[in-house]
Specification:
single chain, two-stranded antiparallel ribbon, 61% helix
């Protein structure tokens, strides 16, 4: 079996290639989820800021009925 080197707690560790791929896959998954959450938080903040900047914050029901008046 082929071996690969991963860095765990600042130290290089020799492991099997499939274990190294799984380790990197988990790291990429965690990073992707963190980036997704950060983007969602920025979007929510921008939309709330835009909603609050016009001086009247309406509930979703009020906003849905706004164009029927």
């Amino acid at each position: 079996m082929s071996k690969d080197v991963i860095k765990v707690d600042g130290e290089d560790t020799v492991v099997r290639e499939d274990t190294a791929k799984a380790f990197r896959g988990v790291n990429w998954a965690i990073a992707s989820i963190a980036i997704f959450i950060a983007i969602m938080l920025v979007l929510v903040f921008v939309f709330f800021l835009g909603s609050a900047s016009d001086g009247k914050v309406e509930s979703p029901a009020g906003a849905a009925n706004a164009n029927t008046r």
